[in-house]
Design a protein that fits this description.
By secondary structure, the protein is an alpha/beta fold. Helix content is about 40%, strand content about 25%. It is built from 5 helices and 7 strands, in the order ββββαβαββααα. Strands 1, 2, 3, 4, 5, 6 and 7 form a 7-stranded mixed sheet that branches. A hairpin with a 2-residue loop joins β2 and β3. It starts with a strand and ends in a 7-residue tail after the last helix.
Length: about 200
Amino acid sequence: DIQDLPFVFLFNYDGALFMRNILIRSKNIDLVCSDTSKSSNPFYHKKRLDQYLLQILTHLEKGLIRELNATKNKKLSISLLICGKHKIKKLNKLHRKKDKITDVLSFPQYENLRKGPRKDEFNPTGELHVGDIVICKEVALKQSKELEHSLEQEIVALFLHGFLHLLGYDHEKSTKEEKVMFGLEDKVIKKMKWNK
């Protein structure tokens, strides 16, 4: 299920931004996606991206999520912000002490959902907000051209990468962890049906 949420105008030092909000809902995962890109110059086909995100949520539910004990019988929620290079650079500097533009950032709510959150970390409503993912549209566009696929495919791949970080996977910890994480990414991406 894909629903448009109310549009929001944001005002910041860059001027006014038009933010598109949508709710993408699979059986057990709610994804709130916000796009702060310039609405007059869209880089991608938004409806196609929405469909791809719904498709990847379904694949995650059927595979990876089902295997995690910590998330059993829980409704998961995630937020995704698609932004520009200035915003992601600022966030990267603030949270990772890296003063550079990056493609994706993840802000997990829990330390490691692979092991399961501590009992005091659960929301009493039974919904589990996994965390937030931020993707830089300009970097995704550049990478999509280099990899010769669509911007929507690159955003979905970056979303998946960020989502695995939210669950506690970290390719920067060790070579073994890198193989596990990138193996999961490959497995899920291979299940995707991309429009030509």
